[in-house]
Amino acid sequence: MELNVNQFFTFLAIYAANADAEIDQQEVNLIVKDAGEDLYSEMRTLFDKLSDKERLEIITANSTYYNTEESKAKLFERMIRVFKVDGHINASESAVIRLLKHLL
Length: 104
Known about the structure:
The chain is mainly α. Helix content is 72%, strand content 0%. It has one domain (5-103). It has helices at 5-17, 25-35, 37-49, 52-61, 69-83, 91-103.
C-alpha cells in the first residue's frame, strides 16, 4: 500500500509509539501536533486494522521516503522524538530501532 509522505510519516510515528505495545496520550498529542487530528485518525484506523507483518510491509513498500542516508536519518530522528516523549527510550523501543535499521 502506497502512502503519501504525510500519511507515511504519521503511520511511522504511530508504529514507533506502539513499540511498547501501548500508545500513551503524550505520544498521541505529539503525533496530532505534527499531523493534525484527521490524518492521525485516518492512519490510526489503518494501523489498528493491520497485523505487525502488514505494518512492516507498508513501511518497506514506501521506501521512496527513506532512500537516501539523509532521509533515513530524518526518519529515525522522527521516531526517536516519539520514543523520547515520555523522557526515555525503553528496551522495546530500542528493539524497534534495531529492526527498522536492519530492514531499511
